[in-house]
Design brief:
heterodimer; A: alpha/beta; four-stranded parallel β-sheet; about 35% helix; about 15% strand; B: mainly alpha; 14 helices
């Protein structure tokens, strides 16, 4: 069961804005006129593209393996609560996204391009003006609907088994920000040197989608907007509320940074209490696994049974079980340790 | 220490919060029963405070972290008080609350096998003080007043017509849903309880699978035994136990399929105990049987899920 998560500070009327406060990069080499499937993945290596939805997997490898897939899925389902950067990129930079999608589809020989977006009527009407040639498929506005596995579940009907990559089923899933980077390189000749991200500070009501050069430190980004950051009161969360982690002020913006959120330390902290066996984690798990039973087995080091291995393989660490736990047990951290036992 | 993801908390934030919600919901049920026996509301609050005091004493003795106003224990004590007649003397109630909280509820925190503490206390009352437990009101010559007139069902084996078969024979029409029903203090207004149960499940405070499976399987089994299923299902005692006792997430299995299986076990055994034995309070035994099965059902559900995933490859 997927849960609807409402984030009131991100529920702005005009959340899909995009700003470029930093100087734009310069053109380095001429763009690409002709898409050749044989040299296209080398071209992606040259511009230094990795999966910009957060995975960081080299896109060139994905394209090489996915040759012959019949469908290209543009993943714009941004289910992380409180982030709207994919939607903003889809709305404001549709030229580059569409160019990147067409180039990708041509390179792998895909005959159908699917745009997977959040189920929001006004937003889909806006998209239909810009992406008339693609199939637009609405996905539920719930976390974690944008995970690759759940997108494929909706498209093919079953959850793909672990170890089976989407291209083996004939689908290639690409994040829209990666496609924007491809389009940028093809049209403007600019490699992956900038990263669109959401910058938000809920306590002051600050919320902006901006384009930041890769490698800039977080301190410089915060100084640009003069945000009142205080290390003793606030913490900086990288890449979303559900799957992110705490980062320091001096760390730099990477290609996989989805967002920078400045949260209050006292509301984010928690204290672990004994499990009351309420089963909230079982009910909330999007794949129907048994998170607490898995954690129990990991702690007892009984990790040899086939049932354990099958479920542990399936888990993609979305963090829903930790978020719903009434006793604040960090289930997803233990599950991440359990991934190493396999 | 770094704070780990997820930074977001959703749903019920603590067990105490859920207990507060449940205890607040017992108040509307109780208000109706004040018409019968007005000091009952103070009695209920007093017993709830007694339950919290029992927990405080227990934590003092075993040197656990002290909690003065823990709502879980208060809810347990209030449930015991609400499921017995108001004429229950103080001393048996004190014993029952002490046994429920200091022997069943608190020492078993964190174990896979948990028992419903309120039902354990109730079992003690039934075993030791049987005459007070069934002392419902003051029956006159031709009126039988109890939670569900099950003994009448049992001994009156008259052939039934279809409508009567569905809705019951002994004055059981739809009016019973919104009329005052004689019974223990919280179960006098079935329609209100049905609405509260739907509210609880919709808000996600209590799981919906166990009560739904319990009510359905109980109705079906009752119909197979030749009694009126709807009348039995919508009787106040059944709804009260479905809402406040069977929906207890702690003592029922964690897994979704396990919850359904546990509800079915409780429903079927409840109907069978009512039909085949002479015990009047079947739900206590049925709930304890269901609690006993909970770890096994969880383990079966875990293995079945793994088998399911492996089969797909």
């Amino acid at each position: 069961m997927l849960r609807r998560i409402k984030i009131d500070w991100a529920d702005l009327p005009n959340a899909q804005t995009l700003e470029t406060p930093f100087p734009k990069p310069e053109r380095i080499y001429p763009g690409l006129d002709e898409i050749d499937p044989e040299t296209f993945s080398d071209f992606l290596d040259e511009i230094g593209l990795v999966g910009m939805g957060g995975s960081g997997f080299p896109t060139s490898e994905k394209i090489r393996a996915g040759l012959g897939a019949h469908t290209l899925v543009m993943n714009g389902v941004e289910c992380e609560p409180g982030i709207t950067i994919d939607q903003s990129v889809l709305i404001h930079e549709s030229l580059w996204v569409a160019a990147g999608a067409n180039a990708c589809a041509k390179a792998i020989g895909a005959t159908r391009v699917v745009l997977a977006v959040k189920d929001d009527a006004d937003f889909i009407i806006e998209l239909q003006k810009r992406y008339g040639e693609f199939d637009i498929i609405p996905f539920p506005n719930r976390y974690p609907a944008g995970a690759e596995k759940l997108i494929l579940k909706k498209l093919t009907g079953t959850i793909p088994p672990p170890g089976v990559r989407p291209y083996q089923l004939g689908y290639l899933v690409q994040n829209v920000v990666s496609l924007r980077a491809i389009g940028r390189a093809i049209i403007d000749g600019i490699p992956v040197v900038e990263r669109p991200l959401t910058l938000a500070m809920p306590s002051t009501g600050f919320y902006k989608n901006i384009i930041v050069p890769v490698g800039l430190s977080i301190r410089e980004v915060l100084d640009t907007y003069k945000l009142p950051y205080d290390p003793s009161m606030h913490l900086i969360a990288d890449s979303g509320l559900m799957m992110g982690h705490e980062v320091g002020l001096e760390e730099s913006i990477e290609k996989t940074t989805l967002s920078i959120l400045i949260l209050n330390r006292d509301t984010a902290g928690r204290e672990e209490r004994p499990c009351i066996r309420c089963g909230a984690c079982n009910t909330a798990c999007p794949l129907g696994l048994h998170p607490f039973s898995l954690v129990d087995l990991i702690k007892k080091e009984k990790t040899k049974s086939p049932a354990f291995k099958a479920q542990m393989n399936e888990c993609f660490l979305c963090g829903v079980c930790s978020a719903v736990c009434p006793s604040d047990i960090p289930l997803v951290n233990t599950l991440a340790e359990g991934k190493k036992c396999l | 220490m770094s704070i780990n993801a997820p930074f977001l908390r959703i749903g019920i934030r603590s067990s105490g919060m859920a207990s507060w919600a449940m205890l607040m919901l017992m108040v509307p049920c109780t208000i109706y029963s004040i018409l019968y026996h007005s000091p009952f509301i103070f009695q209920l609050i007093g017993y709830a405070l007694l339950g919290m005091l029992a927990e405080a004493v227990f934590t003092l003795v075993v040197k656990r972290k002290r909690r003065l106003l823990n709502m879980g224990s208060g809810l347990t004590a209030a449930l015991i008080a609400a499921s017995v007649p108001p004429s229950m003397p103080f001393l048996p109630m004190l014993f029952a609350i002490l046994i429920a909280i200091c022997m069943v509820k608190l020492p078993m925190v964190g174990l896979p096998l948990r028992f419903n503490a309120a039902m354990a206390g109730r079992l003690f009352l039934m075993m030791v003080y049987p005459s007070q437990v069934v002392n419902w009101g003051t029956p006159s010559a031709d009126v039988i007043s109890c939670a569900t007139p099950q003994e009448l069902y049992k001994w009156e084996k008259t052939p039934l017509e279809y409508a009567e078969w569905l809705f019951g024979t002994i004055g059981g029409k739809w009016e019973d849903l919104y009329l005052l029903v004689p019974g223990s203090p919280c179960e006098t207004f079935p329609l209100l309880m049905l609405l509260l149960g739907i509210l609880l499940c919709w808000k996600g405070i209590s799981p919906w699978r166990t009560p739904a499976a319990f009510l359905l399987s109980f109705g079906v089994t009752t119909a197979l035994f030749g009694n009126a299923p709807l009348y039995n299902m919508l009787s106040a005692a059944t709804l009260f136990s479905a809402l406040f006792i069977i929906s207890d997430p702690v003592s029922t299995p964690m897994s979704k399929s396990g919850k359904i299986a546990c509800g079915i076990i409780i429903g079927v055994s409840n109907a069978m105990i009512r039909n085949y034995t002479f015990y009047t309070e079947a739900i206590v035994y049925a709930v304890l049987i269901g609690n006993l099965c909970a770890p096994l059902l969880d383990r079966i559900a875990f293995s079945a899920q793994g088998w399911n995933l492996n089969r797909r490859v």
